[in-house]
Structure of Protein-methionine-sulfoxide reductase catalytic subunit MsrP:
Amino acid sequence: MTKRFKPSQTFKSHEITDESVFSSRRRLLKSMGFVGAGALLSGSATARGWFDDDDDKPAFKAKPLDFTRNDSLSTDETMTPYAKVTSYNNFYEFGTSKDDPAENAQDFQVDPWSLKIDGMVRNPITLSYDDILNKFPLEERVYRLRCVEAWSMVIPWLGFELNKLLKLADPLGSAKYVAFKTLFDPKQMPGQRNPFMGGGIDYPYVEGLRLDEAMHPLSLMSVGVYGKTLPPQNGAPIRLVVPWKYGFKSIKSVVRITLTDQEPPTTWNRLAAHEYGFYANVNPNVAHPRWSQASERRITKGGLFSQNRIDTEMFNGYQEVAPLYSNMDLTRYY
Ligand code: MTE
């Protein structure tokens, strides 16, 4: 038996996310016929037994990484402890409950890995696992992460600017958007082979940004957290982090980045376009159709009874991105 991930402190999702919001988002999936049985499946000892059959594969072990700290782009707010960052996750490929990814992703193989950058570029490139970890000097940036479900964390990511990756590929002048894709591997990702466990999402998970958003210095490709390589549940070996947008834009375990002149499809928008827009900028003035976005529950050290509710800020407090949207009606382009 491989050793499963055990956070030093365990807690239930309802202790952190507003019960109403959490169940509301799950209710959408349930109404589509997916979550009920999925939650049952992913939480049951029997289901875990099914997914424990690759015992010869080594379980994940975080490795320390070299980095320099970028203070000017870091917040000094209290950081969310590692145990919570790595045990309260959204990664539906490994189950729809917050503790499913940490439970089900520990044997996820990230080496070998292949990240391809193609489409409307002069120089298409493919990076290996070692290229990804060694090619770019890493910075630590402490960013706020605001989930559309109205909880937030403060996380010290290790990574490099997405624009560095895109510049290597040399986008054509006609490229306007950047499309991202997560690995599709139903053998390793139980939620991809079982629609009940994966929330009925049409995999692979896909996301997109406008090219100017992707080139913004805040847009980060992250390979680590808290000084070490990313755990699988956080999107190993490489994920996107766009701190001024709702967390669902920050796509995990990326295998392909394609430059295009068309707005690319995005997973949550395809599932419920009236609830999740392409832009998904954090905006306290535009409510989700089923809950307010005016405030959020900040996940810090507090236990069961800590509320820690704070006001949500426009663009999650990253005002420097406002010029990207100066001519746009953000109630229409939510
Ligand atoms: N990427 C993939 N491939 N699959 C997912 O289910 N969930 C998104 C995003 N990226 C998701 C994903 C959502 S809804 C959020 S809030 C963040 O990942 C959560 O990142 P974290 O678990 O590292 O906090």
Notes: The pocket of MTE is lined by residues 89-93, 145, 147, 182, 205, 234-235, 247-248, 250-253 (CB under 6 Å).
